Structures are given as structure tokens and as C-alpha cells.
TrEMBL record:
The lineage of its organism: Bacteria, Pseudomonadati, Pseudomonadota, Alphaproteobacteria, Sphingomonadales. Keywords: Ribonucleoprotein, Ribosomal protein, RNA-binding, rRNA-binding. The gene is rplR. Part of the 50S ribosomal subunit; part of the 5S rRNA/L5/L18/L25 subcomplex. Contacts the 5S and 23S rRNAs. It comes from Sphingomonas tabacisoli. This is Large ribosomal subunit protein uL18. It comes from the Bacteria. This is one of the proteins that bind and probably mediate the attachment of the 5S RNA into the large ribosomal subunit, where it forms part of the central protuberance. The keyword RNA-binding applies. InterPro entries: Ribosomal_L18, Ribosomal_uL18_bac-type, Ribosomal_uL18_bac/plant/anim. Belongs to the universal ribosomal protein uL18 family. One of its GO terms (cellular component) is ribosome.
Length: 117
């Protein structure tokens, strides 16, 4: 078995704790890379993705790349897609990333878009 990095251990620990406290709520999971940011609303009970958005989407309206503005537009789009799928309340899974910068911008925009967490 491969040894997990400290970041992978933290991500696993956070995700396990969220699943224990989530109840029946889906999980808003994010991943941040050096160039892009990705967001998914995942139903862990059914094991499927309900909505997804990223800076790679064609409907990004020119806001691509690793900026807070691009993360905010991803947050708005994920909120729109989640509400269209019938999801209003989620659990925020920051994926081990610190809650500042692009992660915070995405979360704030998703809250403004109508998601509750």
C-alpha cells in the first residue's frame, strides 16, 4: 500500500468527518490547482455527481484561470446548477485546502447564489 502524503491524509480525515455529520445532505467538493478550480455537488449515498462546474467550462464568460474572480464565477454557476437539480442545502468540503483566497471566493459566491452551508 502506498504511503499517503500529509495533504492526502488531511483530505481523507476532513471528508470522513463531513460524511459522518452530513446526514442526507449532498457534499459540495472543491479542488484547486495552480491553473483552475473545480466544484462538484456529490450525493454520497447514491454515489453520483448532481452538478459540476469549473474554470474549464465553456460558459465561463472569459473568467478562466487561477483568480478569485474566476472562482467566484464558478461558485455562482455551481449554485445555479445545484438549485436546478433540486439541491438547496449542502456540506462544504474544502478538500484539505485552507479557507481563504479562491476557496473563500467560491464559497461566498455559492452562498450568494442560493446554496446553504
Amino acid at each position: 500500500m502506498a504511503k499517503l502524503s500529509l495533504f492526502a491524509k488531511r483530505r481523507q480525515r476532513v471528508r470522513t468527518a463531513l460524511r459522518a455529520r452530513a446526514g442526507a445532505r449532498p457534499r459540495l467538493s472543491i479542488h484547486r490547482s495552480g491553473r483552475h478550480i473545480y466544484a462538484q455537488v456529490i450525493d454520497d449515498e447514491a454515489g453520483r455527481t448532481l452538478a459540476a462546474a469549473s474554470t474549464l467550462d465553456k460558459d465561463g464568460k472569459g473568467k478562466t484561470g487561477a483568480t478569485s474572480e474566476a472562482a467566484a464565477s464558478v461558485g455562482k454557476r455551481i449554485a445555479e446548477k445545484a438549485t436546478a437539480a433540486g439541491v438547496k442545502s449542502v456540506v462544504f468540503d474544502r478538500g484539505g485546502f485552507l479557507f481563504h483566497g479562491r476557496v473563500k471566493a467560491l464559497a461566498d459566491a455559492a452562498r450568494e447564489g442560493g446554496l446553504e452551508f
